[in-house]
Design goal:
2 strands; two-stranded antiparallel ribbon; mainly alpha
Length: 139
């Protein structure tokens, strides 16, 4: 079992937000769920670079932080769906702003990242799939 070695700082909103969004796939998970992609298998198809285990761990953390709710249907095979909570929906403004900032600074950031000697290869993500989907609405 993982035990935190460095105490969590919670006296600053930035630290609290980072704690909730800390994880490579969490913003993408929240974005997918906000677009009505609710089942783990659908999310995995949208994010093929992520492993099922990592997605499950990060979905569990989002649930523990109160950003998403998990509904398990009593049927076989087991059916699970995630949805954003009210506070999860309020975080979407932050994620949308991060996406817009990245798009606005794309050419500078891509050039800078490509020059990093630690980066051996780059790939395309599912972002274009996100953009082609219907606008988000709170349900």
């Amino acid at each position: 079992m993982y035990e935190r070695k460095i105490p969590l700082t919670i006296d600053c909103g930035l630290h609290l937000t980072r704690e909730v969004l800390n994880g490579k796939w969490k913003p993408a998970l929240l974005n997918a769920i906000s677009m009505d992609i609710k089942r783990p298998s659908e999310i995995l198809r949208l994010l093929p670079e992520a492993t099922r285990r990592v997605l499950n761990v990060q979905l569990k953390e989002l649930e523990e932080h109160g950003m998403v709710t998990k509904k398990v249907y009593p049927e076989l095979p087991l059916k699970v769906e995630y949805s954003l909570t009210e506070i999860g929906w309020s975080l979407m403004h932050v994620i949308d702003a991060m996406n817009q900032w990245g798009d606005s600074n794309r050419s500078f950031l891509e050039n800078t990242i490509k020059q990093d000697p630690k980066i051996k290869q780059i790939s395309k993500s599912a972002c274009l799939s996100y953009q082609s989907m219907a606008p988000k609405e709170k349900k």
